[in-house]
Amino acid sequence: MDAGKMTVSINKAINTQEAAVKEKHARTCILGTHHEKGAHTFWAAVNRLPLSSNAVLCWKFCHVFHKLLRDGHPNVLKDSLRYKNELIDMSRMWGHLSEGYGQLCSIYLKLLNTKMEFHTKNPRFPGNLQMTDRQLDEAGENDVNNFFQLTVEIFDYMEWELNLFHTVFKSLDMSRSVSVTAAGQCRLSPLIQVILDCSHLYDYTVKLLFKLHSCLPTDTLQGHRDRFMEQFQKLKDLFYRSSNLQYFKRLLQIPQLPENPPNFLRASALSEHISPVVLIPTGNSPPDSETLIETEDLVGMDSSSSQGMPGNKFDDLFGSSFSNDPFNFSSQNGMTRDDKDRLIEQLYKEIASLREDLGSFKAESHRLVINLKGRIQELEAELAEQKHLREQAVDENEFLRTELEDLKRRRQDTEKAQKSLTEIERKSIANEQRYTKLKEKYAELVQSHAELLRKNAEVTKQVTMAREAYEDVERSKKELEEAYQRVNEHTQRKAEEQMHQMEDLQVALESSKREVQLLKTTMETTKEESHILTQEAEDCVLQRLLQEAEYIIQESLLLLDEPLYTNGSISTDFLISRTLAAVESTEKLEEAWKKHVLETPGVSSLLPYVVQFAHRISDVILQGAQTRTSIELSDSCRACGTEALGYLSSLRSKDTQSEADCSKITTILKNITEIAQELRPPSLDIKEEQLGDLVEKEMAATAAAVEAAVSRIEVMLSKSRTDDTGVKLQVSERILSSCTDLMQGIRALILASKDLQKEIVESGLGTASTKEFYARNSRWTEGLISASKAVGWGATVMVDAADLVVQGQGKFEDLIVCSHEIAASTAQLVAASKVKAEKDSANLAKLQQASKVVNQNAAHVVASTKSAKSQIEETDTMDFSSLTLTQIKRQEMDSQVKVLELESQLQKEREKLGELRKKHYELAGVSEGWGDGKHLRFRRMSTVNKCID
């Protein structure tokens, strides 16, 4: 097909005549897209049409474009996306017209844009929306999140389909037979494509909602159900109204939706759902506008033919001459005129009776034809449904066959792997024993290394503080040394002068003993002067230190009135802690000063106490300004600073040193503590005690439970090595060793969780206390407590199960289930900790790595348990060589009965497990605050569920 012929068909299909698009032109356009593998010619022809100036032309363009998107080449969508913005602008332009085709064109263009967006996001859906159930599952990639989003997009798609449906009906005058007029058919003909789309969209919506209800809680899907109910009622009403129009009766059979919508809360209701099928009889197509006949004209013709027939019509039927009339008996039997009239009247009556019989026969024939056509349509619908069911069965059969082959292949691979694993485990038993001892030693080293690291951090902190104090002392020491140096130089000069004098006196020593005594007296005086100079240097350093302390406190008092420091961002608990520290520093300074006055040990002993006193008093003043707006608290802080300055000033003066008293400072600090206690929120104490202390208790309890579990496993392992031998010893050692590895991993996980928790609290603490942080984040704290409980409980239960298995009284399956539960609890703990942690946190990475180790060790426990079970089953081989035929038959029947009982029990346990998981999710969601965000709760449930599976 050449482009010219297709362009002619496009211009004939899209014209300004208010009549339906001819099917032959539309088919030519569709075939043209398949021939050229795209829609370049279509858009080249459409771009030359004045769509923005003629509403009928735009309406018919939408109809043809809808057909191409449904039945044209798949590249039609790709070629049309570049014109999307133009269609949107055209839709806005036509939306300003409230009459005629304006609103119809606006809604139809929005529908086409929605259809293009839907197929762009979901390329697996063909243009005609015909898909099998398997293809529908593949479109969602078997992911519940994808199915959830796909359902929302189908709802949006259906919404615009129903809007166009309703707007077309609203624009028609339903009191007249508009469906047989050219204008009516122009508006109704696009609804055929809408009906075909809606039937598939409704079917997919029902199937997707049943699938979502099998995976998600019912309250999560309440919005989906409400939206479906609204669209169900609209679609049911529109289908019913369409089926009564004569135009649609000739062209297609519209399905009727059920009386009541599907019950998605009952999973078995899916089997009651019947996919709606729209049947289009072969060869039927919309009539051309040139051959339409108005219904009123047809009725008028029938009524005119049913009236009494005039004389000339009678003459045409029976002849115009009585002479040639076979009923003219006047010439044969001599009948009179009256007899002839009676005969003619009788014949008229018989003719009327025959006409009535003929009309009844025609009506009966017409009714039978209608009934037969209806029966044919019902049979065709049943046939289409059976074909659809057959296609589904074929798809399901193919899917099951593929799964069966996959399972067989996996089973073979598993058997091979199991054999090789058994052989490897047998060879590695001796290595595992040595490795276990090394691992225990390594765990002890790791624990001691962690303790040393913590101690090292504390020592480093203390060294830093000591280094700062030491630097202050060094500076003071340097000043003292300089003073000492000056004194020593002065002393040396004096000594040199005295030496010269001594040399002079030695000459005259023998002449005068009195002069010698005088020289001794002079030497003693020189020593006293040196001591006085040293004391002056120390007093100078002390005065400088006290002056610097006063400057620190004065600076804090100046900042007390600044608005920046009165924002109330500091907690009362933090202020109380700083006040108590200031009281302690004040008391220590007082003791050190008394010791300095009495013993005179030197100024170096006073340095740390004076510096600490100044900084802590300044800290109290600044923190009190930022705690809460309180005039009494501000006055107390100012009074504290004033008294501290007075105390330091009295220490500087020798006259007032003996009268210096710091009791007023201590009293004011205690008063500040009482004010802070009154400003403390009354309801916070209970919350802090419930959460802050409870977190520490639960983490400590979990750590204690894990330590107890490790100790119990070591005792069981030692006992097994003493009491057991052979296969039993091998099984016990393998299981207990894997359990030991798992407990070591859990212990490392708890340590990492504590470090991360500490980091989270410190990063989010600010100037608040730890308890206040837990109170502000109560939801997160409760989730952390729940996760910690779950880990400790899982460790305890696993040890109990392992003890029973080693004793021969437990089940291997209990260990496997416990391993899965521990993996799930670990995931819950990591998720609870990850909520508040920074993405690039080193402690978070450490916690995630510890979680991976726990999961690997849990998987190792499962593998070891299964291997041990297989090893025990291999030793218990069944020997039927001594049984008779009757005994074998009897045991075979017993085995079959046992198999049926176990299968029934297995099914019941699976159902029970499903209900328990649902209840667990519900309770866990309430306790951990999952109700605040349903999408978040679902993501956590999915994470835990994957770990359990």
From TrEMBL:
The lineage of its organism: Eukaryota, Metazoa, Chordata, Craniata, Vertebrata. This is Huntingtin-interacting protein 1. It holds the Pfam family HIP1_clath_bdg. Keywords: Actin-binding, Activator, Apoptosis, Coiled coil, Cytoplasm, Cytoplasmic vesicle, Differentiation, Endocytosis, Membrane, Nucleus, Phosphoprotein, Transcription, Transcription regulation. It comes from Leptobrachium leishanense (Leishan spiny toad). Plays a role in clathrin-mediated endocytosis and trafficking. Involved in regulating AMPA receptor trafficking in the central nervous system in an NMDA-dependent manner. Regulates presynaptic nerve terminal activity. Enhances androgen receptor (AR)-mediated transcription. May act as a proapoptotic protein that induces cell death by acting through the intrinsic apoptosis pathway. Binds 3-phosphoinositides (via ENTH domain). May act through the ENTH domain to promote cell survival by stabilizing receptor tyrosine kinases following ligand-induced endocytosis. It is found in: Cytoplasmic vesicle membrane; Nucleus. Belongs to the SLA2 family. Residues 1-126 form the ENTH domain. Residues 337-529 form a coiled coil. The keyword Transcription applies. It comes from the Eukaryota. Residues 683-924 form the I/LWEQ domain. GO terms for molecular function: actin filament binding; clathrin adaptor activity; clathrin light chain binding; phosphatidylinositol-3,4-bisphosphate binding; phosphatidylinositol-3,5-bisphosphate binding. SUPFAM superfamilies: ENTH/VHS domain (SSF48464), I/LWEQ domain (SSF109885). One of its GO terms (biological process) is apoptotic process. InterPro entries: ANTH_dom, ENTH, ENTH_VHS, HIP1_clath-bd, I/LWEQ_dom_sf, ILWEQ_dom, Sla2_fam. GO terms for cellular component: clathrin-coated vesicle; cortical actin cytoskeleton; cytoplasmic vesicle membrane; nucleus; presynapse. Homodimer. Binds actin. Binds HTT (via N-terminus). This interaction is restricted to the brain. Binds to IFT57. In normal conditions, it poorly interacts with IFT57, HIP1 being strongly associated with HTT. However, in mutant HTT proteins with a long poly-Gln region, interaction between HTT and HIP1 is inhibited, promoting the interaction between HIP1 and IFT57. Interacts with CLTB (via N-terminus). Interacts (via coiled coil domain) with AR. Interacts with AP2A1, AP2A2, CLTC and HIP1R. Interacts with GRIA1, GRIN2A and GRIN2B. The gene is HIP1.
